[in-house]
Specification:
By secondary structure, this protein is of the alpha/beta class. 24% of the residues lie in helices and 20% in strands. The protein has two domains: 15-168 and 358-432, FAD/NAD(P)-binding domain (3-Layer(bba) Sandwich); 171-246 and 284-354, FAD/NAD(P)-binding domain, CATH 3.50.50.60.
């Protein structure tokens, strides 16, 4: 659409949030009682939706219900999960259910309740560009308002002193399989779309699930439970050396605390990059209960003798893939330990290959001249979740904050729901210069590192000063 943007007339806001997923919804909920804060949030989708293709019956969120949008920063907030239950007259049933981990569908419903009642949230608003206006010392945000069909209805522009990017993640498809997803014919789809195509997959002759994480396990279990005994015709493969359980020990979980986040951020860039790949079992492993359910289902199918027609093979990567007919696909596999290769013919493929952070480059293109990057050209992000920008921008007090796109600087907890409220509170305390949400000085029994850095809590914003940019931010 080539229509020029509207004239530059908006009164600057204090905060514009881009994206309304759990991270920015948490920020909006905690910002709501701050009456002096003029905040607005934009989302191009028509409503809040949290991984709708994976809301399988019985699938549970892998963090306790206390990791809602607000509780770990403000247990008295009206936007807590417990208040959601109370509002819907479900507090006693939840009490007697004794469920520390709630169903994924219930978490999605809770978030939609918050999104439906919070002011300042604008769905069907697609942000097109973010720019810095050096003449006014302000950010410009251009957006397109979409109609019910997703078509452009109107253009708009707003101005703001602060921006919070919460654009979330997107399904990841490995390069060897990308052409198959984009071509018609045999169903090859990402697990994010599983429920929409479940009937087609259940009717397929042979189904292959690629990916050894939680979503792969849940999809495999769901297919296994709904295919006849002796005729399962399922193959589950993954790159990891085992279908490994997620690290869920009490001290292991302390990697998802503010203490560890601060420790990780202070490490050098090469050490951080090495840790991110090495800590896969902290966030890419499989819930032990799901693994047990898969084994139970497989074992049940041996009671009458014989073995189920289901193959589980870890340590396998897909080298290449192609269609051998209008109804069949051939995957070329390699076993990484045996250094052997084979071919697998299948009628459908589910890619449980995870999600990756959406690239910030498109939305930040207008800020590129001011943006500081690391040795791998990733945006630098400071300890308070702010993009490291040129001092000519930050000296004005204007900032761009990042939510759930900072794993390379803040570690494994970046996408974890249990840190969302703390991160949102940190952003709001820094942005307002007030201690709106007092944060704990210590959150883990583990002491990470020999050198202790003080203060542990990011202080409230002070008057801006020009300081040299440090490497490794």
């Amino acid at each position: 659409m080539n229509t020029p943007p509207p004239p530059d007339t908006d009164t600057p806001r204090d905060l514009v949030g881009i994206g309304i997923g759990p991270s920015n919804l948490s920020l909006a909920a905690l910002a709501h009682p701050l009456a002096e804060l003029d905040a607005v949030f934009y989302e191009q989708r028509p409503r809040f939706d949290w991984h709708p293709g994976l809301l399988l019956d019985g699938a549970r969120v892998q963090v306790p219900f206390l990791a809602d949008l607000v509780t770990l920063a403000d247990p008295t907030s009206p936007w807590s999960f417990l208040n959601y239950l109370k509002t819907h007259h479900r507090l006693y049933p939840f009490y007697f259910a004794e469920r520390f981990h709630i169903q994924r569908a219930e978490y999605d419903t809770y978030c939609r309740w918050v999104a439906d009642h919070l002011p300042g949230l604008h769905f069907r608003h697609q942000v097109d560009a973010v720019r810095w206006n050096p003449e006014r010392d302000i950010f410009e945000v251009d957006f397109t308002q979409l109609d019910t069909d997703g078509e452009a209805e109107a253009l708009g522009r707003t101005h703001t002193r602060n921006i919070v990017l919460g654009i979330g993640t997107e399904p990841y498809v490995p390069d060897p399989l990308r052409p198959l997803v984009e071509a018609p014919g045999v169903p090859v789809l990402h697990a994010a779309d599983y429920l929409a195509h479940r009937d087609t997959l259940l009717a397929a002759g042979h189904v292959t699930v690629v990916g050894s994480g939680q979503s792969g396990a849940e999809v495999f279990l769901d297919l296994l439970r709904h295919r006849p005994a002796g005729h399962e015709r399922l193959h589950w493969i993954g790159r990891t050396e085992a279908f490994a359980p997620m690290e869920y020990s009490k001290l292991g979980l302390e990697h998802f605390t503010p203490d560890y986040t601060r420790y990780f951020h202070a490490l050098t860039e090469p050490v951080r990059d090495r840790l991110v790949s090495a800590q896969w079992q902290l966030h890419k492993g499989i819930d032990a209960g799901t693994l047990a359910a898969i084994h139970d289902e497989l074992y049940r199918r041996t009671l009458d003798g014989g073995w189920p027609d289901a193959v589980l093979t870890p340590g396998v990567r897909v080298r290449t893939a192609g269609r051998i007919s209008t109804t069949r696909i051939e995957l070329h596999l390699e076993h990484t330990q045996q250094n052997t290769r084979s071919r697998l013919t299948t009628d459908a493929v589910v890619l449980a290959t995870g999600h990756r952070e959406r690239p910030l480059d498109r939305i930040l293109a207008g800020l590129d001249p001011y943006l500081r990057r690391d040795s791998r050209e990733r945006p630098r992000i400071d300890e308070r979740f702010r993009l490291v920008l040129d001092p000519s921008v930050t000296a004005t007090g204007c900032q761009v904050y990042v939510q759930n796109a900072e794993r390379h600087t803040h570690g494994v907890g970046a996408p974890d729901l249990g840190l969302a409220a703390w991160r949102s509170a940190t952003v709001l305390n820094t942005l307002t210069g007030k201690d709106n949400y007092p944060l704990p000085t210590r959150t883990a029994f583990t002491t990470f590192g020999l050198e202790q850095r003080q203060p542990q809590i990011p202080p409230a914003r002070r008057p801006p000063t020009l300081t040299p940019l440090r490497d490794g931010i």
